[in-house]
Amino acid sequence: MFDQSRAITAMNLRNLIQRPGTSFVVIIGIAGVVAVLVGLLAMAAGFNAALTTTAAPDRAIVLGHGSRNEMNSWLTNEELNIMSQLEGLEVASGELYAVVDLTQRDSGEQAYVVGRGITPAAYAVRPELTLVSGRFPQAGRSELLVGATAAREYLGLAIGDEVKLRDSVWQVVGHFDTGGTANESEVWMDLSLAKSVFRRNGVSTMRVRLSNANLMASVQEQIAGDPRLNISLVSEEEFYASQAEARTSLIETFTYFIASIMAVGAVIAALNSMYVAVHSRKVEIATLRALGFGQGPIISSVMVEALFLSAIGGTAGAALVYFGMNGYTTSTLNGASNTQVAFSFAVSPELLALGLVNALVLGLIGGFLPAIHAARAPITSALLGK
Predict the structure, then answer these.
(1) Domain extents for the chain?
(2) Which of 96, 257, 356, 362 is the most exposed place for a label (fewest CB within 10 A)?
(3) Residue 350: Cβ within 10 Å count
(4) DSSP for residue 67
(5) Model confidence over 209-227: pLDDT tens digits?
(6) Is the Cβ–Cβ distance between 285 and 345 less than 8 Å?
(7) Is the predicted pLDDT of residue 98 greater than 80, yes or no?
(8) Which stretches within 281-292 are classed as H helix?
(9) What are the phi and psi torsion angles at 316 (to 5°)?
(10) DSSP assignment string, 232-259
């Protein structure tokens, strides 16, 4: 049976070049499904990575009570002073969260980008931050420090460019890198001037770095035990995980919905193509069966042919996404704050494997019924061309 299966399968694969039309229908259909599936999941993975890699185990964010994001949070000056005196904090950085209007480089459309008012403590809280070019802004001056991703994604953020924020003009003096985190989508400025420009008193949040990551619970207990503090302390890991969850879930749900619709079409195309292929070889198959070849080898040969075409399609779709989209930078709205977050598509080996597995599953489904039909067709009718 093995020898028969190998002989028929080899013959079928050699004959594929004689029916390029039906073969390409299967390949293109499968490639399209894999490209959409892997591409959209890579977008979700890239967005999730941009947020979650921002987190460090020894860092936390202080939010106003009941707030779930920085945009809706507010801390008073008294709360800032009390927080800075708690035990277990190594560095504390009060920061103002604002929205800056910029223009996307590719589309020319308006984008809402995070503008962050900071003090030098912000750099100490984030030791991973490095200056890519230019210099750090000077305190008390209308100067901007721009994330490297924001500089690539939006217009008017080159060093030396002037940016209008409300009624004031700011000059870009430096670009920074934080290892691909969400902070690279932001524009940073002096906190005291930002308060004046955006007409704020106090700050939106406080970023803190703990002396030890294990002190998180201790600091939370201190906050809960002080009636003057109406705030909450959340680890960065927890904060960014919650920010990413809703958006990535939406993208993944949309991905599987669209991919499912396309998969149905790909299976139908595979069924039709394989039925056509079987029908065009019915005399050949009937002759083999008359010579003593069993139904098992016939079925396996058709299934292998369908899997072979699906594997080609899956590989083509995965390669298209990997070489065309891996590392591609784009931006999307962060649903928690309605601001743009720039990120890069992350086409991982796991996603490529998932795409290929789905391609093979579609090939199995599309080849099964035609294979059964080929094995069960009456030999006499097939030989007579009926």
Answers:
(1) 2-52+243-383, 66-229
(2) 257
(3) 10
(4) -
(5) 998 888 999 999 999 899 9
(6) no
(7) yes
(8) 282-290
(9) -65, -45
(10) EEEEHHHHHHHHHHHHHHHHHHHHHHHH
In tens, the pLDDT along 256-268 reads: 888 888 888 888 8
- What is the residue type of 133? S
Report the distance separating Cα 336 and Cα 206, nearest Å.
18
Q: Name residue, tokens 């801390």.
A: 75
**Phi first, then psi: what are they for 339, rounded to 5°?**
-115, 160
State the pLDDT confidence band at 115, using cuts at 50, 70 and 90: very high
- Going by C-beta distance under 8 Å and a sequence separation of 6 or more, which residues neighbour residue 17? none
CB within 8 Å of 242: residues ≥ 6 apart: 68, 336
Average pLDDT over residues 311-334: 82
The first and second tokens of residue 234, run together, are 């959340």
Q: What is the token pair recorded at 320?
A: 């298209």
Neighbours of 225 (CB within 10 A): 8
Q: Could you give phi then psi for residue 232, rounded to 5 degrees? A: -135, 145
Bridge partners of 176?
A: 131, 147
